[in-house]
Amino acid sequence: MERVVIPAGEGRAVEVRAGRVLRIEAMDGLQVADAAFVALHNHREGYHAGQTVALNMLAGTGTMRRVTTLWSRPPYERPMLTVIDDPVGVHFAWNGGRCSRGVYAVRDGIESGHRTCQDNLEEAVRPWGMDPDLVPDVFNVFMFTDVEDERRLVFRPSPARPGDYIDLRAEIDVLAAVSACPSDTSATNGGAPKPIALEVRATDDGDEPGPGG
Ligand SMILES: [Zn+2]
């Protein structure tokens, strides 16, 4: 088993081979993680939030807030990962966004200098030689965000408690870049960024994967 602790406000990436399980853990609770998935051997094939929500709703396997199958973007459109254990049960599946220069400028009036999930994800994929322009939509783990009156985005504190996690089984070989969100200006992380842990293990029952796994 591989375990990587992402320091508060930073990002890291891990390879998850098909059949293996990625756990994303809110070690200290009250913290969101932004996860960007691309096919390990073709970085252009990235996770697509809108298509994922649509396909899960069409298949009866998810909602705008909680999905089962994470799909890559058209024209590839393959299941990349499957959520197999999700005790928190809250994502922000339909949006695909992350904190960025634009978010801090428009929402908080901070024009520059604030660290962002976009920065973290770009840095995390660099060791794999991935073009940072290819960082795709993100899957907002443990993030509880609502829309009020169809026009107001409300960022609520993450419901994740210490040790809470989500387990995702890789359906293809993926590169998983994860940001321990550095936001201290919204309620999502309780005003204080905290670390996130990543674990990659063989299968959901602990066995070694079989041939091709
Ligand atoms: Zn963020």
Give a quick precis of the structure.
By secondary structure, this protein is mainly beta. It has one domain. It has helices at residues 49-59, 101-108, 117-125, and strands spanning 2-6, 11-16, 21-26, 33-39, 42-46, 69-71, 79-85, 139-141, 144-148, 152-156, 164-170, 174-180, 196-201.
What would you say this structure looks like, in words?
The protein has 213 residues and is mostly beta strands. The chain has one domain. 13% of the residues lie in helices and 34% in strands. The protein binds zinc ion. Zinc ion binds next to loops.
Order of helices and strands: EEEEEHEEHHEEEEEE
Portion of residues in beta strands equals 25-35%
Average pLDDT score: 93
Record the strand order, biggest sheet.
1-13-3-11-7-6
Number of helices: 3
Helix content: 10-25%
Number of strands: 13
Give the biggest beta sheet: 6 strands, antiparallel
Cα shape: globular
Number of domains: 1
Radius of gyration: 16 Å
Please report the distance between the alpha carbons of the first and last residues. Answer: 15 Å
Structural class, by secondary structure, is mainly beta
Low-confidence stretches: 207-213
Query: Which cofactors or ions or other ligands sit in this model?
Result: zinc ion
Draw up the topology in text.
Elements: E1 2-6, E2 11-16, E3 21-26, E4 33-39, E5 42-46, H1 49-59, E6 69-71, E7 79-85, H2 101-108, H3 117-125, E8 139-141, E9 144-148, E10 152-156, E11 164-170, E12 174-180, E13 196-201
Antiparallel strand pairs: 1-13, 2-12, 3-11, 3-13, 4-5, 4-8, 4-12, 6-7, 7-11, 9-10
The structure holds zinc ion.
